[in-house]
Amino acid sequence: MISLILFNVEFSKSFSSLLPKWYNLLMPSIKDVAKIAGVSTATVSRVLGNNAKVTEETRQRVMDAVEHLNYRPNLIARSLRVQKSAKIGLVVSDIRNPFFTEIGRAVEDAAYEKGYSVLMCNTDENPEKEEMYINLMHDENVAGFIFSPTQQFGAKLSTFDTSIPIVIIDRVVNTKQADMVLLDNVAAGYDLTNHLIENGYRKIAGLFGNASTTAPERRRGWLKALREHQLKPFAEYAIPPKIKQGYDTALALLNQSDRPDAIFTSNSLLTAGALQAIRGCKLKVPDDVALVGFDETTWGALVDPPISLIAQPTEEIGRTATELLFQRIKDPTRSPKTVILKGTLIARGSSAKR
Amino acid sequence: MISLILFNVEFSKSFSSLLPKWYNLLMPSIKDVAKIAGVSTATVSRVLGNNAKVTEETRQRVMDAVEHLNYRPNLIARSLRVQKSAKIGLVVSDIRNPFFTEIGRAVEDAAYEKGYSVLMCNTDENPEKEEMYINLMHDENVAGFIFSPTQQFGAKLSTFDTSIPIVIIDRVVNTKQADMVLLDNVAAGYDLTNHLIENGYRKIAGLFGNASTTAPERRRGWLKALREHQLKPFAEYAIPPKIKQGYDTALALLNQSDRPDAIFTSNSLLTAGALQAIRGCKLKVPDDVALVGFDETTWGALVDPPISLIAQPTEEIGRTATELLFQRIKDPTRSPKTVILKGTLIARGSSAKR
DNA sequence: TTGTAAGCGTTATCAC
DNA sequence: GTGATAACGCTTACAA
Question: Which site among A150, A291, B127, B205 is 20 to 30 Å from B329 CA-CA?
Answer without folding.
Answer: B127
